[in-house]
Specification:
The complex is a heterodimer of chains A (447) and B (434). Chain A is α+β, with helices and mostly antiparallel strands. Chain A is built from 15 helices and 11 strands. The longest helix of chain A has 20 residues, at 135-154. Classes of the chains: A alpha+beta (447), B alpha+beta (434). At the A-B interface, helix 2, strand 4, strand 5, helix 4 and helix 10 of A face helix 1, helix 2, helix 4, strand 12 and helix 12 of B.
Chain lengths: 447, 434
Amino acid sequence: MTFARIWPILSLTLAAAPAFAEGVSHFTLANGMEAVVIEDHRAPVAVHMVWYRAGSADETRGSSGVAHFLEHLMFLGTDDLAPGELSATVEANGGSDNAFTSYDYTAYFQRIAADRLDLVMRMEADRMRDLVISQDDWATELQVIIEERNQRTDSDPGALLREQMNAAQYLNHPYGTPVIGWRHEMEALTRDDALAWYQRYYAPNNAILVVAGDVDPAEVERLAETYYGPLAPTEGLAPRERVSEPPQLAERRLTMADPRVQRPYVVRSYLAPERDAGDQSAAAALTVLAELLGGNAATSVLGRALVFDSGKAIGAGASYDGLSLDESTFGLSVVPAAGVSLADAEAALDAALAAFLRDGPDPAQFSRIRTQISADEIYARDNVQGLARRYGAALASGLTIADVEAWPDALRAVSEADVMSAAQALFDKGRSVTAWLMRPEGEGVQP
Amino acid sequence: MIRFAAAFVGALSLAVPAHATIDITEVVSPGGITAWLVENHEIPFTALEIRFAGGASLDAPGKRGAINLMTGLLEEGAGPLDAQGFAEAAESLAAEFRFDVGDDLLSISARMLSENRDAAVALLRSALIEPNFDEVALERVRGQVISIIDADSRDPDAIVSDTFARLAWGDHPYGSSLNGTLESVAGLTREDMFAARARVMTRDHIRVAAVGDITPEALGALLDTLLGELPENGAPMPPRAELGLTGGISVVDYASPQSVVLFGQIGLPITDPDYFAAYLIDHILGDGLGSRLMTAVRAERGLTYGISSFLAPRDLSETWQGYFASANEKVAEALAVTQAEWARMAAEGASDEELAAAKTYLTGAYPLRFDGNGRIASILVGMQHQGLPRDYITTRNARVEAVTADDIRRVAARLLDADALRFVVVGQPVGLPQ
């Protein structure tokens, strides 16, 4: 068995992949709002999502955290809705709602009985343009997001290390700044910062609607015309063009020691190409590579070499998510076995990578992964909310519906040679960031 | 994310199913094994959920951690296959098997494609009926478990949970981590694995549900293949766990900017006639962004990112608990506000508006749970374990609706006791008695 909690980096390779085109339709409103409808009539449930093409990587320097701060403030009410009324109304109708912010997008969603779609769409449309932020509320909500940072980042050495690692990986690009924000910049955020962000980015021509579940596409379009159709777009919204990374000329290494470290480990990341509209083959090869190297604890290349054969690790993994507007990362991780130093664990990782680059993939493993790619298309249909997220995240990350639907075929088209050339291009230690998370001197396993 | 995904809220979700059109068939296999089935042929796979009652609480004296380790070894080699061979076989079939164990149940979840279901069943059968527990796998998985025990000793959420459990249940299995201790796990042998399996994985402990692309006849045959060879009887269930909680504050020193707090008092069993009243009270008090605790502690004062309460009706003991995390300088105030809200509910109950809103939410949310084969199968197997009838799904919302404001007042006054709350605080709280 693999105890899930052992992994410092979650492997989300194939799971982030395929979708199914059956029962998926789309339309675009005159004001520029795109919409996707995914039908699943097995249960009387609808998922309603609005994705904004605005994430933390779109923030201006010095105001980190404002995208996520605004996400919180979006629950405070509008000219028509009292603070908290949207969530309370959803809840009073048996539904649930939430939101999330990432580097490339911010999204809001409700899950509710399918016959209440009208209600949630009306309220979501209301807060796209008519948010009201009172003087009292924003300051309290700022304390809430600082507590959120306390809980999710500052209380977790692994999260702190990831933050440092991203900052080292991206010298110039905003992916080096944490989504939640640097604490000192969060503390200085104001109502005006949030409102400026809102007025610029929260507009129909910067939004994607995804409705999934027991719904009729024609009715969804009618409702969308009614509620989202009259909203004014933001004029002059430029395409998202962010600064890019300079060439990496030196290997970057970090060590972090903290008495709260539950389990020392080594993690490494490399800059890696992302999925691009009309051009997903490089990302598909990297997705298969991550699955080959670290997808299954018992059968993957790293699992075999480090956990089963040499016993130097209790866990080893690889991770890659090609869903990203700009250049993504490919990650590797090793959790050393008792008595094995971080240096030895890293050396074993390097040796396993070198062997893989020399020998290539096991054809039987390659074939099993292709089987799984096809099976995941079947299993994915059981989770309509998951499908809705795939479409929303892809469209908010610069892809098209055609790209989402082409993705399973792109994965199936990957050959062993494609994987090996992707691996050869990727694994240059001189272009990597390697981090050790450990306990202070004298405690537990040391390098 | 605006909403806090509480680490401790899992316990209640199975308890309250309801108003959806879910057509459950009871299937009895030729060999006499009973399962609940919902047929749905839209997607060509079947979700199967198997439970063995007793879970890790059936560990033999002196063998704490044996059932957890044994569960971890089920997929680490069976019949002619070693761990890697087993994993390769599952991958080739694109079958997914998950093995897990809790205090009350050992759980096996499977997703199997229709196109190769027989082969997938044969593979899963080998894990259940003829696991090898070979020494190589035993040492490898033992290393993983020891790593988890070591990590938990530095994880504030694990520390708070273990400390609360020890105060609440002492020497009963509920009072200690099912992982065992470094010492107990170090001493476990291959023979202990076979003995642990014989204590828990037996026909008298089985509950099964299947949802998806399978007929009753096919399910009947599957049940006998998969489970028919298990021994008839396992270890007897452990005794009820006497709740030793007293009111007060326990602080565990832990260097971090934030304290985590787990608190609780006595609860009530699902079979109690007042359970639905308590369930409504809990929703109003601490379930969701609009709850009284979220309003008072987060929205009005900014003292936390999230706070929740939850009923935890386990098989052998019942508690009513809550959880939050708060900066060390704010935790004393957050704790005081929490206690005041607990006392206010006990003294006043809820308003008619609050009760009406809670009913609308809970009755409206219920059918939304039944939206996937795996999810439905999990709910059904949970209902079986709790002894609920198949028609419970159609009657459950009426039970929620039947609760009156008087019931809320009476049950809140009877059960909630702010002075009886034990708060376990892990951190370096400012202004709390140490």
